[in-house]
Amino acid sequence: MFTYYLKLATLALKRTPVLSALMVLAIALGLATAMTAFTVLYRLSGNPIPQKSDVLYAVQLDNWSKDSAFDEENNLPPNQLTHGDAERLMADAKAMRQTAMRRSSVSVVPSDPEVRPRLANVRAAGADFFAMFDAPFLQGGPWSRADDQNEARVVVISRELADRVFKRTEVVGERIRLNDEDFSIVGVLDTWKLNPLFYDITTDTLSNPEDIFLPFSVATAKEMDIDGSINCFEPPPGIGFDGLRASDCVMTQYWVELPDAKAREEYLAYLTAYVAEQRKSGRFPRPDNNKLSNVMEWLSQNQVVPDDSRIFAGVGVAFLVVCLLNAAGLLLAKFLRKSGEIGLRRALGAKRREIFAQHLIESGLIGALGAVLGLALTLGGLAMVRMLIPRFDKVATLDTSLFGLMLLVAIIGAIGAGAYPAWRACRIAPASQLKTN
Q1: What's the pLDDT at 212?
Q2: Which of 96, 126, 345, 399 is the most buried (most CB within 10 A)?
Q3: Alpha helices by DSSP H, 129-253
Q4: What is the pLDDT of residues 188-219, one digit of tens each?
Q5: Could you list the residue range(s) of the whole structural domain that residue 190 is in?
Q6: CA neighbor of 422 nearest in space, from 381, 343, 362
Q7: How many CB atoms lie within 10 A of CB 168?
Q8: Residue 284 domain flag
Q9: Long-range contacts for 336-341 (Cβ within 8 Å, ≥24 apart)?
Q10: How far apart are CA 423 and CA 290, in angstroms?
Q11: pLDDT(89) > 60
Q12: What is d(CA 330, CA 204) in angstroms, rounded to the nearest whole number?
């Protein structure tokens, strides 16, 4: 019977092409608006590293002024550490893995003198960084902790940078010149996407991971510029990089990997003891406010997902509901226009449930056609988002799993919208229609 009802639905659409097209367009527009908004929100609010998000923790210590909190409204400590605190925590190495890090930039000087140098983003980090964040290696591997301690001139570079500078990716063991010094390449990362870029919320969280990674100790020794936020509650005791190093200005991100709840509690106890020791030298005047936030807690705390995205998604869903209600009104008008035909079929023995099923299938067919058109409009909407907001180029892309959801929503929504019109159609009394006609 389903095939028969589907054939009837197809014929019904052909008999009223304009009305049918309006219903398909209404569903497609509502679906495209909702799916465009939901896709962006889904990409922004997703878990960037689901396999490890519950064991990676951002470390916060409240070294701020006794006169005011870093975040008065939420009583939160700074979202970065001082350079000195980060170095001491790294030296103690109390976690399973840990890394201090910050972002900088360097000039990459090609060996070919005819090729102009170009700037590249740098992530100064510890050797544990790559294992902590599951960085995918195409060739080679990370440097060692000994390299951290010895300020070894080693780097890991991205596949994209290798292609740009060397025109190939098999470059482990070769040297690359950064600013005024040569570094040995120990690893090449494969294409790596993190949405959002959670490990440093002081920079653009929609950007790609950096092109160059080098030891944190080397960035310190070379006094590399800091590309990120530097927050101070009092002026540094000196000028330049040395002044920042000796100050209570926060400028360094610090992450640890703790495999279970026991390790987390032990690390919190260690932080408490560390702060108590630092108080002896006059630091940390505020009450203890040390925090360990896992990845999703960190994203929520720092409101990485813009409120505008949630509002846009809400408006999109509301618009979809309005479009489905409009489609329901058009379906009701269409079905009631067929009262004579329905009455005749009922008089010839068709049961109410058969009439109801036939019109529900017609509604579902309209929903399926709306989904197909909605897919094209969604792709167009996402392209427009990428054009208007270039920084959304990674998140404004249709997820394959969302396509199936979109098709399901369209069909169920159309069937839901057609349920009342179909019920009204099957309630038509055959006798009255036969007398009228």
Answers
A1: 98
A2: 126
A3: 129-132, 145-149, 159-166, 216-221, 240-245
A4: 999 998 888 999 998 888 788 999 999 999 99
A5: 62-289
A6: 362
A7: 10
A8: yes
A9: 336/421, 336/424, 336/425, 338/12, 338/425, 339/425, 339/428, 339/433, 340/433, 340/436, 340/437
A10: 61
A11: yes
A12: 46
Mean pLDDT for 341-352 is 63
Distances (CA, A) of 178 to 141, 167, 183, 199, 431: 20, 17, 7, 24, 89
Domain boundary among 261, 289, 317: 289
> What is the per-residue pLDDT across 283-292, written as a single tens digit (0 to 9) for each?
999 999 999 9
Short-list 197, 201, 225, CA closest to 209: 197
Tell me how long the chain is.
Answer: 437
Q: Rounded CA gap, 99 and 87, in Å?
A: 9
User: Are residues 191 and 315 both part of a single domain?
Assistant: no
Surface-to-core class of residue 50, CB atoms within 10 Å of its CB (0-12 exposed, 13-18 middle, 19+ buried): exposed
CA 83-87-91 angle, 5° bins = 170
Tokens of 390: 């270039």
Give the tens place of pLDDT for each residue, 152-193. 999 999 999 999 998 899 999 999 999 989 999 999 999 998
Pair (42, 69) in one structural domain = no
Rounded alpha-carbon distances, angstroms, from residue 362 to 28, 334, 411 = 16, 11, 10
Token digits of residue 51: 């396999």
pLDDT-derived band at 224 (thresholds 50, 70, 90) equals: very high
The residues, any chain, with a CB within 8 Å of residue 345's CB and separated by 6 or more, are: 355
Phi, psi for residue 158 in degrees, rounded to 5: -80, 160
Domain boundary among 262, 289, 316: 289
Mean pLDDT, rounded, of the chain? 87
Average pLDDT over residues 64-85: 92
Between 14 and 277, the more confident residue is 277
Number of domains in the chain: 2
Token pair in block for residue 113: 């003198």
Q: Write out the DSSP string of 14-47.
A: HHSHHHHHHHHHHHHHHHHHHHHHHHHHHHHHS-
Angstrom distance (rounded) from CA 278 to CA 179:
37
Residue 409 to residue 432: CA distance in whole angstroms: 37
Tell me the residue type at 139: Q
Decide: 109 and 212 in contact? Cβ < 8 Å: no
Note whether residue 426 is domain-resident. yes
Helix (H) or strand (E) holding 137, with range, is: strand 137-140
Report, in angstroms and rounded to the nearest whole number, the Rg of the chain calculated over CA atoms.
31
Tell me the CB-side half-sphere exposure of residue 295, using CA atoms within 13 A: 22
